[in-house]
Amino acid sequence: MAMTEIVQKSLPFAPWADPRTRKLPGIVPLDMVDWLHVDDAYTGQMAERDRLIRDCPGLVHGMTEKAQDASVEVYDLILRLLPPLGFCMDSGQATRPDGMTVPLNRDQPLLTLGRLIQEDICLMQPDGTGEHQLSGAILCFPAGWTLAEKLGRAMMRIHLPVDKYTEDVGRRVQRMLDLVRVDQPLWRANAHHSRAPLFNPLREDAPKDMADGLMPYIRSERQSLIRLPVSRAVVFSIHTYLVRMTDLTPDQNIALKEHPIHRAQ
After folding, report:
1. Is the full-model pTM beyond 0.85?
2. Are 141 and 198 in contact (CB under 8 A)?
3. How many percent of the chain have pLDDT more than 90?
4. What is the SS3 assignment for the chain?
5. Which of 208, 193, 188 is nearest to 242 (CA)?
6. Exposed, middle or buried: residue 196 (CB in 10 Å: 0-12, 13-18, 19+)?
7. What pLDDT does 91 receive?
8. What's the pLDDT tens digit per position in 195-247?
9. Which residues pair with 224 in a beta bridge?
């Protein structure tokens, strides 16, 4: 079945073309003014997010009891950042840049954020064993994983199916999560070839599509790490870009030949 095409017209940052982000974990300092993005795919992505949250909320949202306070804290933080991005905030509702009005519900913080911003939001909190666990999330655009299988799991267990996520990488990522400071947020980006839609949940035991064939898109996730000052949770946000291969710039294509990226579904 052909996917419904929701794409950006260009890829603003190609991680394979920048030596800072070419290898894991590829972390770069983040300016909070540049955290949340409203791009040319906003209308299409938000319509898809509205559909998913309406029709299958259990697939895209999950929260443990541990995440309750952090989810409200990130909700309050993000609402304060929305007006400069083109949102009109009124009593009890927000009008998005695409003209849609969304009720503001602090009792459903992550579900509400999922209807306002393009970024998926994952909350990472210490699990008492020296690792961080995924304690809550609104995840409308998973790239080949299923939220229900990862919720409440520690980082190494979450990435068990990922060959490149070795114990050494896991230790470095855990150290990074431990050291993220409130006043020093971070970001990174990944990229892979894809033919899958934005909403692409796969269970860990699902057979992988290894067949060669046309991979018409580059899928890239701009991932940010922000420490919340009160709960001390780490917000892991994901802004997903899906760009046609034909819309890469000449420089991005040249760099891609020099530094190939992997193929996914």
Report:
1. yes
2. yes
3. 74
4. CCCCCCCECCCCCCHHHCCCCCCCCCCEECCHHHCCCCCCCHHHHHHHHHHHHHHCHHHHEEECHHHHHHHHHHHHHHHHHCHHHCCEEECCEEECCCCCEEECCCCCHHHHHHCCCCCEEEEEEECCCCCEEEEEEECCCCECCCHHHHCCCEHHHHCCCCCCCCHHHHHHHHHHHHHCECCECEEEEEEEEECCCCCECCCCCCCCCCCCCCCCEEEEEEEEEEECCCCCCEEEEEEEEEEEHHHCCHHHHHHHHHCCCCECC
5. 193
6. middle
7. 87
8. 999 999 988 776 665 556 689 999 999 999 999 999 999 999 999 999 999 99
9. 187, 237
Task: Provide the greatest CA pair distance for the chain.
Answer: 52
Check residue 35 and give its pLDDT: 98
Residue 209 has a pLDDT of 57
Question: How far apart (Å, rounded) are the C-alpha atoms in residues 242 and 143?
Answer: 11
Cα separation, 52 vs 59, in Å, equals 8
Bridge-based pairing of strands 132-138 and 217-227 is unpaired
Do the Cβ atoms of 233 and 70 come closer than 8 Å?
yes
Distance separating alpha carbons of residues 188 and 217, to the nearest angstrom:
20
Return the pLDDT at 1: 34
